[in-house]
């Protein structure tokens, strides 16, 4: 099975369309003010409108007020929600939309317990733990901490780039990979050549 590919943190329709043409299966929109990849509702709606068929749109939230998530969903046709904070299972399922739960991995985090708590999630997205930062750090983590028998589909994130993603896919065999900073030329600025190289590396794994 070829791992699916999500390019996260896109902020304009043209780049999102080109990422899809290069082979991305999904694009991510960040609705989190402190992030350099934060996008407003109008821009996010324009990005979704530019996507071709069968390319999914994913909205990333971090401990957002439920009213804000609903405001986004009223204007942006997101296929999947991605929760990167301390959201409880009841919160995650409150929006009648499929969701991923992100988990920042460190040695004392029990991913099997997370999978049991968020059993109705479409998958667990695993990222590096960096104190005080919910994601998008560009840091990797020890893949040996991932259990081989996780009952939910695994989305691998954290420090992936065109140079290491082929090895990551071969070692971890995730359902999907998620990249943001690893395909940027500067914070929040996507590089189409790096996106193409990343996608090629996943396909070659």
UniProtKB/TrEMBL annotation:
CDD domains on file: PRAI (cd00405)
InterPro entries: Aldolase_TIM, PRAI_dom, RibuloseP-bd_barrel, TrpF_fam
Reaction(s) catalysed by this chain's protein: N-(5-phospho-beta-D-ribosyl)anthranilate = 1-(2-carboxyphenylamino)-1-deoxy-D-ribulose 5-phosphate
Pathway membership: Amino-acid biosynthesis; L-tryptophan biosynthesis; L-tryptophan from chorismate: step 3/5
UniProt keywords, alphabetically: Amino-acid biosynthesis, Aromatic amino acid biosynthesis, Isomerase, Tryptophan biosynthesis
Gene Ontology terms, MF aspect: phosphoribosylanthranilate isomerase activity
Ranges where the N-(5'phosphoribosyl) anthranilate isomerase (PRAI) domain occurs: 5-200
Gene Ontology biological-process annotations: L-tryptophan biosynthetic process
NCBIfam families assigned: PRK01222.1-4 (NF002298), PRK01222.1-6 (NF002299)
Annotated family: Belongs to the TrpF family.
Name of the molecule in the record: N-(5'-phosphoribosyl)anthranilate isomerase
Organism: Chitiniphilus eburneus
Lineage of the species this protein comes from: Bacteria, Pseudomonadati, Pseudomonadota, Betaproteobacteria, Neisseriales
Gene that encodes it: trpF
